[in-house]
C-alpha cells in the first residue's frame, strides 16, 4: 500500500466524513486550515450543480454579477472603439484599445484578455473574430453589457469585480470568489452575491430542483459540500 503524503494524512484527519454538509463559515475555516501548507494565495472557488440541460435554449444560464469585494485578480480588458470612445476607454484603464489594428493583433494570436468590450459601431469588425473569441467566451454581447456605448462603465465593472457566469454542458457553473487572503466577511459577501445571481437567473425551462448541489474549494484544496439551505432559491 502506498505511503500517505503529509497532505493526504492531514486531509484524512480534517475530512473524516466525505458526505458532510458544511455551513459556509465552517467550510471556509476548514479550507483555510488545509491551505496553510500552500506557498501562494489560493483562490476560493464555488461550483454549483444545476437542474438544467443547457443544450436547450430555454435552460441556458448565463449572465454577469458584480462581486462586492472584488476578485483579487488583475483583469485584462481589450476594447474595440474609435475616436472619443477610444480616448475614454484608455482613460478608464483599458489594457488595449483599437479597431482594425486590434482585430489583426487578435488574428495573430494575441488573445490574452479576460474581457473584450466593443461599442455598437465596432461589431462589423468584431464579428469577424467570432471563431476566435467565441470558444474563449470573450465575444462581446449586448445582453452581458460588453457591447455598449458606455465603455467607461463597462471597463470599471470588469476591473472592479464583475464576473461572467455560464453553465457548462453537464449543468455545472463555477467561479472564483476572491483570494483566501480576503477576510471571511468579504468572501461571504461575494458568495452570497454570486449564488443569489444564479438563483435569480433560473431559466423558464428548468424543471424540478434547480440548485442541486453547491461546493466550495480552494485552488489546491478539496471540494466541500455546502448545505443548500444557505443558498437563496435552493
From TrEMBL:
Chain ranges passing through the membrane: none
Keywords: Repressor, Ribonucleoprotein, Ribosomal protein, RNA-binding, rRNA-binding, Translation regulation, tRNA-binding
Source taxon at top rank: Bacteria
GO terms (BP aspect): regulation of translation; translation
InterPro entries found in the cross-reference section: Ribosom_uL1_bac-type (IPR005878), Ribosomal_uL1 (IPR002143), Ribosomal_uL1-like (IPR023674), Ribosomal_uL1/biogenesis (IPR028364), Ribosomal_uL1_3-a/b-sand (IPR016095), Ribosomal_uL1_CS (IPR023673)
GO function terms (MF aspect): rRNA binding; structural constituent of ribosome; tRNA binding
CDD domains to which the protein is assigned, alphabetical: Ribosomal_L1 (cd00403)
GO cellular component: cytosolic large ribosomal subunit
Annotated signal peptide: none
Pfam families: Ribosomal_L1
Complex and partners: Part of the 50S ribosomal subunit.
Role summary: Protein L1 is also a translational repressor protein, it controls the translation of the L11 operon by binding to its mRNA. Binds directly to 23S rRNA. The L1 stalk is quite mobile in the ribosome, and is involved in E site tRNA release.
Assigned protein family: Belongs to the universal ribosomal protein uL1 family.
Protein's name according to its UniProt entry: Large ribosomal subunit protein uL1
Species for this entry: Altericroceibacterium indicum
Lineage: Bacteria, Pseudomonadati, Pseudomonadota, Alphaproteobacteria, Sphingomonadales
Gene field: rplA
Amino acid at each position: 500500500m502506498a505511503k500517505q503524503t503529509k497532505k493526504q494524512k492531514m486531509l484524512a484527519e480534517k475530512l473524516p466524513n466525505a458526505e458532510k454538509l458544511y455551513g459556509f463559515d465552517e467550510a471556509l475555516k476548514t479550507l483555510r486550515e488545509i491551505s496553510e501548507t500552500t506557498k501562494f494565495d489560493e483562490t476560493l472557488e464555488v461550483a454549483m450543480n444545476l437542474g438544467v440541460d443547457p443544450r436547450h435554449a430555454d435552460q441556458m444560464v448565463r449572465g454577469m454579477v458584480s462581486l462586492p469585494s472584488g476578485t483579487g485578480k488583475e483583469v485584462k480588458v481589450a476594447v474595440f472603439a474609435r475616436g472619443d470612445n477610444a480616448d475614454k476607454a484608455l482613460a478608464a484603464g483599458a489594457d488595449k484599445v483599437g479597431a482594425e489594428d486590434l482585430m489583426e493583433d487578435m488574428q495573430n494570436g494575441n488573445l490574452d484578455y479576460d474581457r473584450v468590450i466593443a461599442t455598437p459601431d465596432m461589431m462589423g469588425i468584431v464579428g469577424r473574430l467570432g471563431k476566435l473569441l467565441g470558444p474563449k467566451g470573450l465575444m462581446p454581447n449586448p445582453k452581458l453589457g460588453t457591447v455598449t456605448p458606455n465603455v467607461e462603465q463597462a471597463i470599471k465593472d470588469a476591473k472592479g469585480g464583475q464576473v461572467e457566469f455560464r453553465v457548462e454542458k453537464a449543468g455545472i457553473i463555477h467561479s472564483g470568489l476572491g483570494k483566501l487572503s480576503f477576510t471571511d466577511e468579504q468572501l461571504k459577501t461575494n458568495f452570497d452575491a454570486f449564488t443569489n445571481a444564479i438563483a435569480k437567473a433560473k431559466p423558464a425551462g428548468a424543471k424540478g430542483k434547480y440548485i442541486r448541489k453547491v461546493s466550495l474549494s480552494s485552488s489546491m484544496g478539496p471540494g466541500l459540500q455546502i448545505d443548500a439551505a444557505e443558498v437563496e432559491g435552493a
